[in-house]
Every structure is written in C-alpha cells, then in structure tokens.
Design brief:
The chain is of the alpha+beta class. It contains 4 helices and 12 strands, in the order βαββαββββααβββββ. The protein is globular, with a radius of gyration of 18 Å.
Length: 267
C-alpha cells in the first residue's frame, strides 16, 4: 500500500519525519489500509524501530477486541505504534493501561472536559459514559522467550461515532467546538503516550496503575463482568499489582484477567 505524500515524496512504505511528533517517532501515513495494526505488525517483523507510528485515513478491515469490526469512516483517528520495550513478556499487557491514561490525557487536552472522561477496564476511554476511543495491543515473543515487539492500535472518534455500537459512542466533535484534524490528534496523543511510556519504563507499573485508577470509575461501583463461560456481579475493587481487575463479590474478591465489564444491570 502506497503511503500518502506529505511535504516531499518518499519511497513506498517509507517513514517520514514530522515536527509535530515527539523526538524519535517515525511516521508512516496511508490513505487506506485493511488495518493499521496489520501494517504495524508487518513493519515490526521487518525490523521497524521503536516508536514507529502508522496513521491511515480509513481502514477496510479495522478490528477491536475479540476481532470485532471497528468502523472506520474518514475523519477519525486510526493509528498504530510499534514499541520495543526492554521488558519481560509477562509485562507486555500493561501497555494497555499506559495507552489508556495517555488517551485520557489527550482527550482531556482536546476537549477540556477531564471531569467527564473515565477509563473503563481493560482498554476503553469514555466521555459521559459513551465510548470515544478503543485500544488494541498485540505482541510477539521470540523463540528465545523474549519480548520482540508490541504493536499498539488506538482509534479515537473525531468527527463521527457508530450509532449501532454495543455501547453508546461519542466523538470529539460531539463534545463541542471545532473537531481537530487527525494530524493534531495524533500529535497530542503521541506526546502523551511518549511521556507515559517513559514513566512506565523508568518507574514500573505502579505509577501507571495509580494514574489509571485515578481516571477510572469510583471504587465500589456495581459492575457485571462477562466471561466466556459465565457472568459475575460484584463491585469494582481496583486493580492488582499486575493489572488484573479485582471484583468484590459476595463470596470474596475475585481476580479477572480477561472479560467484558458492564454497569450492573447493563447488557
């Protein structure tokens, strides 16, 4: 897929530098791709360096968690990043929380509505309870058992939101004011993501976990967690030191590593 030309022509699939992104980021821009995560995975397999970013105007086969279709009309942000953190594979999933707090900060900066924004376990960001962004991390472990790379896909609704989503959805334009262009949103997001990546690698997951909890729904809130084989009701008890959801049930605390969270009584 041939990337769009920005300021000067460049080879097919080649990176371009942009002053809007933090130092060390290398940007690949496309008009249309099947999935930015697929493009990022291919680049990662070809040796793309840490902090490679992929941006597309639209996706023809975008996906979210559990391979759900991610609607991708023009005007919204469809971006993926390649990271190569020097971490154990067991810590790779923590990048979802890094991304969530970065998206929260970016949306807050773009809307000025931080009080209305929340992080929802494990990887959504909501405004007034409606989904404005989704996050999809994927990783690769080498034959030696070491973490090779993480691909982090982030979609942010800028000008539109799906009307038939499982949950209510919203967009930046629906929050009032003129909708920013995708380049502006990518720049704001990349700066927030860069800062939280540095903090994660320097200080460990603890500071990211605290930041995510500060941005999440209140502890003790009634929720329902849908697992592949059952549904559990309880109250939100926070996160354990590794990022698992703590669900306080009538029979005691239960740790949940993967599942869907709904408000109690929600679908």
């Amino acid at each position: 897929m041939k990337p769009l030309t920005q300021e000067t022509p460049r080879p097919e699939g080649g990176p371009c530098q942009t002053a809007a992104l933090p130092p060390g980021f290398r940007l690949h821009r496309f008009g249309s791709v099947a999935s930015t995560n697929d493009e990022a995975r291919q680049l990662a397999q070809q040796g793309a360096p840490d902090r490679t970013a992929i941006l597309a105007e639209r996706q023809t086969a975008g996906r979210g968690r559990y391979s759900r279709q991610w609607e991708s009309p023009r005007g919204n942000l469809y971006a993926s990043f390649v990271f190569r953190p020097p971490l154990s594979p067991r810590h790779a999933a923590q990048i979802g929380y890094v991304a969530a707090v970065a998206v929260y900060d970016a949306v807050a900066a773009l809307t000025g509505r931080s009080a209305a924004i929340t992080c929802k376990w494990p990887n959504d960001v909501l405004v007034d309870g409606a989904k404005i962004a989704g996050i999809l991390p994927e990783s690769s472990i080498g034959a030696d058992g070491a973490l090779e790379w993480i691909v982090l896909g982030i979609g942010i609704n800028i000008v539109s939101a799906p009307a038939d989503a499982v949950r209510p959805a919203t967009s930046l334009s629906a929050q009032g004011g003129a909708a920013p262009d995708t380049g502006t949103v990518l720049a704001v997001l990349s700066r927030a993501l860069d800062g939280w990546m540095v903090q994660w690698l320097d200080d460990g997951f603890g500071s990211v976990r605290r930041a995510w909890l500060d941005r999440a729904g209140p502890l003790g809130g009634a929720i329902r967690v849908v697992l592949p084989d059952r549904s559990i009701k309880g109250s939100f008890g926070g996160l354990d030191p590794d990022g698992a959801l703590i669900l306080d049930t009538e029979s005691g605390p239960e740790k949940v590593h993967s599942g869907e969270v709904f408000a109690a009584g929600g679908r």
